[in-house]
Amino acid sequence: RAAAEHARLHVSTRGSDFVDSAGRVLSLRGVNLGGSSKMPAGATGPTHVRDGFFESMRSVSFVGRPFPLVEANEHFNRMRAWGFNLIRLIITWEAVEHAGPGEYDEAYLEYLAALIERARAYGLAVYIDPHQDVWSRFSGGDGAPGWTFEKVGLDVRSFEPTGAALVHETFGGAGASDADKAKFPRMCWPTNLHKLACATMFTLFWAGDAYAPRTTVDGVPVQAYLQDHYTRAMCKVAAALRHLPNVLGFGTMNEPLPGYIGIKALDKLSGPLKNGLMPTPFEGMALGGGFPTRVGRYTLDSLRCLAAGLPVSTEVLNKGRVSAWLPGRACPWRAHGVWDIDARTGEPTLMRADYFAPRPGCDFGHDFYVPFTKQFAAAVRSAGHDDWLIFVEMPPADLGLCPFPVLDVAHLGGGIVHAPHWYDQLTLFLGKFVRWVSIDVQKGSPHFGTGSVSRLRARQLHELLQQAGTHVGGAPTLIGEVGIPFDMHDREAYAEGKRATLANCEAALRATVDALEASHLSYALWCYTADHTAEWGDGWNREDLSLFSRSAAPEVPLTLDPFGVYLGGRALAAFVRPYVQALAGTLVGTPTYDSTRQTYSLTFRHDATCEAPTILFVPTAVQYRRGFALRVSDGAYECDVQPPEAGTFVVVRYRHDPAHAVHTLLLTPSGTPPPPAPRGRASALIAGEARTSFLSAQRRSPPLPSRRSAAPAMVAVSRMRTT
Fold this sequence. Notes:
Blueprint: H1 2-7, E1 12-14, E2 17-19, E3 25-26, E4 29-33, H2 72-81, E5 86-91, H3 93-97, H4 106-121, E6 125-130, H5 147-152, H6 159-162, H7 178-181, H8 196-211, E7 216-217, E8 220-221, H9 222-241, E9 247-251, E10 276-278, H10 281-288, E11 293-298, H11 303-308, E12 313-317, H12 332-335, E13 339-341, E14 348-350, H13 364-383, E15 389-392, E16 416-418, H14 425-430, E17 437-440, E18 445-448, H15 450-471, E19 478-482, H16 488-491, H17 503-518, E20 522-528, H18 572-575, E21 579-583, E22 585-587, E23 592-594, E24 599-606, E25 614-618, E26 628-632, E27 636-641, E28 650-655, E29 662-669, E30 690-693, H19 694-698, E31 714-717
Parallel strand pairs: 4-5, 4-20, 5-6, 6-9, 9-15, 15-16, 19-20
Antiparallel strand pairs: 1-2, 2-3, 3-21, 7-8, 10-11, 11-12, 13-14, 17-18, 21-25, 22-24, 23-24, 24-29, 25-28, 26-29, 27-28, 30-31
């Protein structure tokens, strides 16, 4: 019954809230699916594999990403049991249009529709994330098809010798072994954002008309050509999914980057990211033009780099004078007078260091992103549904690349969701979690002490919520990505025998989720990778953030999980926790969960126009293995216990008494005494416990045959009333 109710869930926005068709305020708990969807299916997909990387550029297939359809029931069942009600589904432009301009992969579109239909059966809402990282797989990330480089004249095979991109597939050279590939620098792929390949493509995509007006593709201005193909590809996806009621809408683009737009001086590095070999934008142009150039090398563990911003060493790149441009093609930035070759010395010279510096009419957010978002939203809704939500995001704020523009939500057609990302950068980039240390990347200031670190997280999240009010018309906020690396502390999670531990991972993830819930934010964790491996993590650029791994040790005893619903889960206790999924009113304060005591409390004022019950998710297999006690201030409730094959979680439906204005729910482990009343007042918690067996509820859905039998767990339920 719980699954059926969620399958009918319609999500829309009302002010800063997500609401369903009954008018209940929704809390969205989602997961990004999946980490390996950035890459094609098959043996050539993972980024440490070089064989076939270039040769299969147009013939790849993404059918089976994030997992084959035969595995869909297993994974969606698991996600539902873990408390997720939302999927941020990762797709790429390349997955749709890899074969060539206007050639769409119909088999992939059919696969996507079938996949989302399966998710619907498990009550999972979906929004489509057109994902990219630093433009494309061929520039060190994912997203755009390889042919987009060819159309502007770039030669993807020359990116390694020219330093135009740092690419895992080509890292270490043609004969690199797996051991060599494992040395790919941690979190180094983002440094591609200002390297020649990525920066050129994004500048042409957003602002070719402004910065390269003479650059055309097949007679079409390059900006229009790239944007039209991207939008049409996403419209093909929208058309294929328009019949599915659990599709909520589309993102515009994952972490859109401005390219060179806004860089004040092309002969200097900009932004906080300095890792590995780092040519300045001008040095990158010179390298791409075939000129040997000395560039700086940086590391994340050097005070010289972190504090002074100076390289630890320098190195001459492109000694072989390779061009990053295809034969007969030229650098558009030289063609537009940004740099040239000195007639006397024969060396590259920078002509206009401030060519991309801020100027009127060339603000990335206001002048380029917003107009694109308006036409993209209109096109996708026209191909799909006009009531689909549009999830907007800008480059991660920590990068300091550009200010967030003010969005006129009505001008964009309404239904806008603010979907920024938030990570603890110290943990993510250094792979270490210390609960009493963090850093404010935007301000460059360290924070010491658990209190200071907690306040930093709270401030960062509060600023994102404020941004929704000041820049996105008061739209709802959903943190589209948030997560932690599981290979932290020198891969201690993968140590041999008893030395293996997830303690730091669980602590880091718990601190993250605690901060999110203290701000009562909806969010989607990064990520769920069905084909995660201990050796290569998520299979992409050595990232390892998946909440699931088939190699993980069981965290829930098989006696409580005879069908293996929780197998593969990592640090489950940190994020599988009770929460209110649908609220028939407005919160009084913020719901609180104490992970040490396993207590959850919720107070709200009811909405007189809402007749639907409040829905509470209770993860009994993870948090309340000996049962739980639920005390309510008034009204009545019922517990719908899912069978073992669904994960044995509980959905509580609470119907408040409208005679009372304010209502309280308190969830504790079974046998926990009620909290003491405030001094001088009679207790509002009158316990009259009654025990109910899970077994009776399970009979609503007969369990599937199993070789194991589990003793029925017990749930203690009680009532409380005000005095």
